Amino acid sequence: MSWRIKPLDAIIASAEKKALTRSLGAVQLTLLGVGAIIGTGIFVLTSEAAQKAGPGMMWSFVIAAAVCAVAALCYSEIASMVPVSGSAYTYTYAVMGELLAWVVGWALILEYAVAASAVSVGWSGYFIGLLNSWGIELPLAITAGSYAGGIINLPAALIALLITALLMIGTTESARVNAVLVAIKVTALTVFIVLTLPVIKGANFEPFLPNGWMGNGHGAGLGVVGAAASIFFAYVGFDAVSTAAEETKDPQKNVPIGLIGSLLICTVFYLLVAAGAIGAIGSQPVTGANGEILHAGSAAMAAQCQSLMAAGSEPLVCSKEALAHVLRSVGHERVGDMIGIAAFLALPSVILIMLFGQTRIFFVMARDGLLPEFLAKVHPKWKTPHVVTVITGLAVALFAALLPVGKLADISNSGTLFAFFMVALSVMILRIKQPERHRPFKTPLVWVVAPLAMIGTLGLYLNLPTESKLVLPIWAAFGLVVYFLYGYRKSHVGRGIVDTDH
């Protein structure tokens, strides 16, 4: 019974009835993509990736980008056929039925909410670093969770709540602010590249693969592929472009341009930034007392970093504000502060986009009757789904207050990789089941690209740390309980409420 499918025509029709305004063009969409992609991944996770792969993290960026590119091509085909909000959830509903759509939507909730928390923690690292460089020390108790000897990461929780409030007030305002913030981020990364490339030392790239490709048998989540599974987070957000399909002018043409364009721009930036960071100050992993590899975000790693800093050296892998730290280390103290300020200003835009994507998916699931209807309420004055925005914002603030950035990023990735896997599968099923349907954008070499996307996403998922891999099935199981207790009975499709008149 739960294989009930929501026909594509019905999806498009119900979207037109409760529609969002179409106001975004190709350039705005690419900017939205670049804005969503450039964020915590590059500003913060550079140090996490260095701990896992050393200089080999250059390959990690390439691997993650390649998986994203094949996933993006599959995404583009379905996004151009079904130009409505809800991204992978909506697509799965149309192709594989309600039960799997529910699981995908539930995984996307995990992706966006946890990602927004991760970015909040990343922002907090830069904020605290900035205050330190101006001589203001905040007590550890309110700047880190128990994983690093503190109690609560207060700045991270506060920024999450602030963005939630902004998002409730409206979208166009946020799109304008976003354009300015993207400019700031791109400028900051460009300045970083210009200042670090001239001081690169070849010796800093040796050994290039200290932990090998797969962690040299030290467990999941290490080596170049393990770092790629984490650094994948640096590209998450390009699917925010397809989530915005319902608000895009001429989505058939503009969505693919936005997806592929933003991915290309970001990959080039990332490789140059990674080369600059590694070449300028080195990026070898920190090892324990007996030469063992330490896991990023672990208590042992935090302790080892503290003792190194007490001895007067702070390696790249220990920094919570990697890019600012690199510049300060090579003598650009004030420019390092400027990068800190840029991250301080720009990372909130990523939180905003993640929260935006998350609330829209909740909104669409409620619109389909799978979640309580009151969640789909739109505020009479602000015209935004204010109820789900508040609920999401509170959850995001809680996670941000208690967990380290790397763990959050890995958990978020597990949800994302699952959603991308399902999209690639949907594209192939639709090609067989509905070959005659109009496809404004066709995935090139679909029988090569879609399987590659599935293999790539599965491969990265299997290389996540064990606890991050386990979160997804546990979360999914919890989601199924909710579905069978509520969504299964209340679903519009299940009750025969389907709009096809348009």
TrEMBL record:
The keyword Transmembrane helix applies. The keyword Transmembrane applies. It holds the Pfam family AA_permease_2. It is found in: Membrane. The chain crosses the membrane at residues 24-45, 57-78, 99-126, 146-167, 179-200, 220-238, 259-281, 338-357, 387-405, 411-432, 444-464, 470-488. Keywords: Membrane, Transmembrane, Transmembrane helix, Transport. It is a multi-pass membrane protein. Signal peptide: none annotated. This is Amino acid permease.
